Amino acid sequence: MTSHPISQNQSLFDASQLRIPGGVNSPVRAFRSVGGTPLFFQKGSGAYVWDADGKRYTDYVGSWGPMIAGHCHPDVVKAVQDAAANGLGFGAPTASELEIAELLCKLLPSLEMVRMVSSGTEATMTAIRLARGFTNRSRIIKFEGCYHGHSDGLLVKAGSGALTFGQPSSSGVPAEIAALTTVLDYNDAAGLERAFAESGNEIAAVIVEPVAGNMNLITPKREFLDALRNLCTKYGAVLILDEVMTGFRVSLQGAQGYYGIKPDLVTLGKVMGGGLPAAAFGGRRDIMQCLAPLGSVYQAGTLSGNPVAVAAGMATLKLVQEPGFYEYLSKLATRLTTGLTASAKKHGVEFCAQSVGGMFGLYFSSAVPTSYAEVMACDKEAFNRFFHAMLDAGVYLAPSAFEAGFVSSAHTEADIDETIAAADSIFSVWK
Ligand SMILES: *Cc1c(COP(=O)(O)O)cnc(C)c1O
Known about the structure:
This protein is an alpha/beta fold. It has 14 helices and 16 strands. The strands form four sheets. The chain has a seven-stranded mixed β-sheet, with helices on both faces.
């Protein structure tokens, strides 16, 4: 009888489930969507991560986006160590907060003022409160399949029938709060126009992911982006671009620069924190001046603008400004998607892929989806099978068919080619 070594991932997961609900501190980590045992990571370096059994993986999750320069980039690690040596936090202003505010406003021209928070959830939650305070209106619009963090008014799905009130998508969210959110179809300019025609004067804000990255990856149609801007302007609603994922990911100017669309407010997180908890929201000065202590919209945070988190963010934002940074990321992402697509085609697997800057989407379908309904129609079982086969081959993709993937500047063309080769052997015996 040969004894099977017990996986450290499995024993850590078993023990974690006794003390942490589901064994995880954020639900997607539990592998519920793809099945199997989640990996517990012990370290990362550059493009690679190592699980609790010491197995190495090429990482296409990058902590869900922040690790755009790869794990443990020496500049980022040094900045964090230096900042930590000077004090972990004061709950009082520091010069580095001014530095990052000035840098963010320089890089994203739509930002005239900015406030730091600690998570994307806080950024979107507060941007909405601010939009409501500024407009004196209550209703907000979001789009099915877009994720904006887990505050009550954003955990909402479409009610039955067009233009009805939203319904909670989570227990614990009061129906009365969900009813203030209208949920529309992404990329549906006509639907947005109808919603504004019906109740435009009640709408405080429209919040949208300018590239949707939380339902796999959906790129925005030009007419959709134009409708967002024009209708918000026409009806006096605040356009909030949620760039928590796309900011400093699709280009140095975010999706707003990539597509040329000017928001009233912007939310940022992920890359701008370099892996530590730093996020922000900002935008038009007249709107931002409604925030306490200048104005009557309250917002605060003990850890907001934490010097160690700001240092990680500043070091990362310095790296992404190096010439050719985004050209390199785009080149890698394109190499990956075209390589995977060619391999699937060669072996007759129904599959396609696309990328925008440093993010990409993989779809088990014949055509790239452009709506939530089309994403939902992709073959989820095929993705799950592919995910596990790639994991065995040492490639870590997001553990869900409905997440975007990310490359970093630490990935090499050789890494990408190895990943394509792994997929090619899987596709060659796919049937
Ligand atoms: C990740 C994400 C958030 C939430 O950010 P957290 O830091 O996880 O709270 C909000 N919006 C978008 C678009 C995101 O991708």
